[in-house]
Design brief:
Length: 451
């Protein structure tokens, strides 16, 4: 099983179906869970083509190691979170989120909604290899089905306050799990819905499973043609939402978050270190504070669970809406934005805070050197600048912008994010950071980085 160790990532289990993530491996993962996290498991999945096979195999492993299984079937990840946070189950959710259809994975949750990650996943990997978890005949777990999707749907209906404003909304479910919930939900809440890609396709053959400005370029014209108030596109399992205003323009996650905050009571916000500075300025002006966390939805979830926050936002399009009532549920993020538009009673475009310019750069540097380069930069910047954060790589806030330098977790590269009010500022900061990286490479005795 050593060749499968790499599928146990920092925050979930992930691999290519039929190669490194197979039904046989899923059976053993189910057995390993019984050793470290025994209990009643709600097992469910997104709708990609390999999810059913992995879900059934995972269930078999749990049953064969003595754990009871509640099969919730198919649904968005919000359903899985609901099952753990509100119904008290351990949850194993089969999904690869926004990744291409040949990929799949497993997200694991403890009964309070806390994700299983890092050290716990390493323990699972070791136990899978030993395979010491099967029970004797007569000691197997019990299997039942439960319509958790309907319970989750009823929960969603009750979360928003009533608003008098009926909206026309273009909904792009990306042929994924949001298709099972969102169009009907918004209609039941009184809105006019124009659905596209709301038929399930396990292979995501229309636009792929990841909603980006490029893959959703059709949304602008649809929104304008239908004179809609809002547009939203989902990823494969519904944990990320990409918004569009009534003019068809893409809304950044930070802009959407600030609209939600305008209609919410003042309070603290959790945001990842890559989020725009406009979030911190807005929250501080209202007497709150922004708790910054490393990049990755898991860090936002952990912070939200131990803090009293009004909202969470990540630069990739993850939100923790309604103060964390169902953690990072992309469908609830849509409901909170809709509710905010009703409360503020204005077109979305008029509520958007102007964004500074953003630039992202990838510099190829070997895995052996990239972390040493970032450490060198940390030491240099801590002695050179006043506002420096080192919770994830190194971020430096300047008078006319900021920059973040991080070692990639998945590639032999360093990623640089730069924000400034104008192109000249972006160019100046980029030139400076590239020069500093070159200096770090020379000091460490390494060859030059590739552009």
């Amino acid at each position: 099983m050593d060749k499968y160790r790499h599928i146990f990532r920092a925050y979930d289990i992930r691999g290519i179906f039929g190669e490194d993530l197979t039904p046989i491996v899923a059976v053993k993962i189910g057995g390993a869970l019984s050793k470290h996290f025994p209990g009643v498991y709600c097992v469910c999945s997104d709708l990609r083509s390999s999810s059913q096979a992995l879900k059934m195999a995972l269930s078999s492993g749990l049953l064969g190691s003595g754990q009871n299984v509640v099969d919730a079937g198919f649904g968005p990840i919000g359903m899985a979170i609901y099952a753990t946070k509100h119904l008290g189950y351990h949850v194993a959710y089969v999904t690869a989120s926004h990744l291409p259809p040949e990929w799949n994975g497993i997200k694991l949750f403890k009964p309070n909604g806390l994700p299983i990650c890092e050290e716990d996943l390493e323990k699972l990997a070791e136990t899978v290899e030993r395979e010491e978890f099967w029970v004797k005949a007569g000691e197997e777990g019990k299997y039942v089905s439960r319509d958790v999707l309907s319970e989750y749907y009823d929960f969603l209906l009750k979360v928003p306050k009533k608003t008098s404003r009926k909206l026309k909304i273009v909904v792009d479910c990306g042929n994924g799990a949001a298709s099972l919930v969102v169009p009907r939900l918004l209609r039941d809440l009184g809105h006019d819905v124009i659905g596209i890609n709301c038929d399930v396709d396990p292979l995501f053959r229309v636009r792929g499973s990841e909603p980006t400005p490029e893959t959703t370029s059709f949304m602008g014209k649809l929104i304008r043609d239908f004179n809609a108030d809002l547009g939203v596109s989902f990823d494969g399992d519904g944990d990320r939402a990409l918004f569009f205003d009534e003019k068809g323009n893409t809304v950044t996650p930070e802009q959407a978050a600030l609209v939600m905050l305008k209609a919410a009571p003042p309070g603290d916000v959790v945001a990842n270190v890559e989020c725009s500075s406009v979030v911190e300025r807005f929250v501080q002006d209202r007497g709150g504070k922004v708790v910054k966390v490393p990049v990755g939805r898991i860090h936002m979830i952990f912070q939200a669970m131990k803090s009293n926050i009004v909202l969470g936002v990540e630069s990739s399009g993850h939100y923790i809406p309604y103060g964390g009532v169902n953690l990072d549920d992309g469908i609830l993020a849509v409901l909170q934005l809709i509710e905010a538009l009703g409360t503020l009673d204005a077109p979305l475009s008029s509520l958007l805070v102007p964004m500074p310019l953003l630039r992202k750069i990838k510099i190829e540097i070997s895995d052996e050197v990239k972390f040493r380069v970032v450490d060198w930069l940390k030491n240099t910047y801590l002695s050179k600048y006043e506002k420096v954060s080192t919770i994830d790589g190194v971020r430096v806030d300047l008078e006319d912008g900021w920059f973040l330098v991080r070692a990639s977790n998945t590639e032999p590269a360093i990623r640089v994010t730069i924000e400034s009010n104008n192109t000249e500022g972006l160019d100046r900061i980029e030139k400076m950071v590239r020069k500093d990286i070159e200096q770090a490479m020379k000091s460490l005795g390494s060859s030059q980085a590739k552009k």
